[in-house]
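Box 4.2: Ligand-aware structure prediction
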Amino acid sequence: MSDQITFTIDGVSIKGKPGQTILQAADEAGIYIPRLCYHPELAPHGSCRVCTVLVNGKPQAACTQPISEGMTVENDTPELKEHRCNIIDMLFIEGNHFCMFCEKSGNCELQAVAYRLGILAPKFSYLFPKKDVDATHPDIFLDLNRCILCGRCVEASKNVDGKGAFEFVGRSIEKKIAVNAEANLKDTNLAVTDKAADVCPVGTINKKRTAFAVPIGKRLYDKKPIGSEIEERKK
Ligand code: FES
C-alpha cells in the first residue's frame, strides 16, 4: 500500500498520509479550513460543522472525514463561506457573547473565526438566554453565557484527564454543559492543571488569577488572523 494519498483541495494537489483526515492533511499542506470544535490534541467529533467542505460534491466535516486517493475537496467557495457564517452567526445569538467585556477577547477562537469570515455585525436577533455562572471552584470560573457546545472540555476531561468532570445535558436549544457533581464545579475533581481547563476555545472555562496577564491588543488573534499560523507553513 502506498504511504501517500493524493487528492485536491480547491484544485491544488495535496499529498497526505493514510489515516489522516482532510483537516489534518490540509493543515500540513498550509491550507486553512475554518474550524471550531476541532482541537489537534483531542479526538475529533464533528459537532460544530464549521469545517464543512464538499467532498466529490457532497458536504462532509473535514475534521472527521478521512482522505482517499483522487478525492476532490472544495473548501474556499462562496456557498461554504455563507454556510460557515450562518453557523457562527447563530452561535453568537444563542449565547451571550459580550466580547468587549470578555477576558478571552483576542484569544477567542469564535471571535477570531468571525473576524476571519468578515462578520462584523449580528445577522439574526439575539435570544438573550439565561445562562449559569459558577465561580465556586477555587481555581476555575465557569461562564456558560459564552459556551458554544464544542464539547472539547467533555472530551478532554473524559478521555485525557480520565475524570468526566463535564457532560452534555438537555436537547436542542436547552442543551448545555453540566458539571458531574451534585451541585457545583467545586464538587467535581476538576483540577486547574487538567487538559479540560486548557482547551476551551471561548471564554467559558477560565482560570482564576490569570485574567489580563496579556493585555488586550497583544493577544494571539490581535496580531494575526486565525489560520495564519497554518498558512505560513506553505511558505
Ligand atoms: Fe469539524 Fe467542528 S471543526 S465539525
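In the box above, the bound molecule is FE2/S2 (inorganic) cluster. The mean pLDDT is 96.
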